[in-house]
Amino acid sequence: MSQSAESPSTESVRAVLAQIIDPHTQADLVSSQAVRGVGVDGSNVAIDLQLSYPANSWHAALIAEVKRLVGALPGVAQVTVGVATRIRMEALGWGTTG
Asked: pTM of the full predicted structure?
């Protein structure tokens, strides 16, 4: 992907995502490993998020918040956000022996 001097950096996008706190986990999106990918192509930013719990009712609000905050970065014209859910059974205590 191309990046000009006026384009946001992947690091600046991740820094913004680290400020967004997931109300279900009380952790930011970066430290909770919800950020699966960040792509920057000029003024366009694409972000892939993956939540470890079912929260379809929160997806629209999460996408809106990410677009608002990342869209405020200098040089950003468009933000695309994808949200998926992958439930980890071990996080629920399932699939373990003991």
From this structure: 0.82
Does residue 96 carry a pLDDT above 80?
Answer: no
In terms of phi and psi (left: phi > 0; alpha: psi -120 to 50; beta: otherwise), the region of 50 is beta
**CA pair distance 27, 29, nearest whole angstrom:** 7
Q: Helices (DSSP H) in 1-98: which residue ranges?
A: 10-17, 56-71
List, for residues 45-62, the tens digit of each pLDDT value: 999 999 988 888 889 999
- Cβ-in-10-Å burial (0-12, 13-18, 19+) of 17 comes to buried
- Please name which of 55, 10, 49, 53 lies closest in space to residue 33, comparing C-alpha atoms: 49
Q: Using CA atoms, how far apart are residues 60 and 82, in angstroms rounded to an integer?
A: 10
